[in-house]
Amino acid sequence: MTDTNLPIIETREGGIHRLHFNRPKVLNAIDSATAQALLAAVRRLQADPEVRVVILSGEGRAFMAGGDISQFRDDPASVPATLIEPLNAALAILTTLRAPVIASIQGPVAGAGMSMALACDLILAADNTRFNFAYVNLGTCCDLGASWSLPRTVGLHKALEIALLSDPIDATEALRLGLVNRVVPADSLADETDKLARRLAAGAPIAQGTLKQLMRRSFERDFAGQLDAERQGFATCAATEDFKEAVDAFLGKRPATYKGC
């Protein structure tokens, strides 16, 4: 039986693993206990070859309204070591997992919540989603990779506008800017997320993981280096049973069934 008092509730359906933030009374604001729980969970996922898709979601009316302000007030010196460091480690793992990571978001998505969503591979947003960078409103800079992901998503000058002014961004504008992949009705968010996750889970895991890393690491290489990385990636995929299955299925005009090997 699931302990509903846990800061993160984990569920698994087939190869789809959901990490569900569970502090709805504080809009899932993240504290040190939640950060440590997230890191422990993603470390387990890192060692689990059966995971095909990871979903990050939040209980109640918000995905995540940033860091826990009470901890900032009561023990600000603890934040870098007990909050930011484990979250950094968790996000570093999520971005290198073979499995695609989906952020399924709704309501207020501010500060660390926005940073965490932007670190995911795909973002599915309810139509009531409202982003706010928020960091400057607390007299601090950003964390969790926002200064890396935001300029790469919207461009430098727009990123600076979003960060420095911290004006709210609704779901429609977020979609226009490319901050999210899709916007769906709020009451359909869970179903649409599951539909997307099942589609990804049915795909070829090694090919998906290789594509994910090629895209994520493309900023580190020049064009020639990226061409070489793609060649190596193709060679890796072509040596798998899934590649043979995909070719046979294509020629046989039937759906492919992937095993992740």
* Strand order across the largest sheet: 1-2-3-5-7-10
* Number of spatially distinct domains: 2
Q: Report the CATH C-level class of the largest domain.
A: Alpha Beta
CATH superfamily of the largest domain: 2-enoyl-CoA Hydratase, Chain A, domain 1
Order of helices and strands: EEHEEHHEEHEEHHEHEHHHH
Gap between N and C termini: 33 Å
Number of helices: 11
Question: Which radius of gyration do the C-alpha atoms yield?
Answer: 19 Å
Shape: globular
- Contiguous uncertain segments of 5+ residues: none
CATH architecture of the largest domain: Alpha-Beta Complex
* Overall strand count: 10
Oligomer: single chain
CATH fold category name of the largest domain: 2-enoyl-CoA Hydratase, Chain A, domain 1
Helix content: 40-55%
Query: By helix and strand content, what is the structural category?
Result: alpha/beta
In percent terms, what proportion of residues is strand? 15-25%
Average pLDDT for all residues: 94
The main β sheet shows up as: 6 strands, mixed
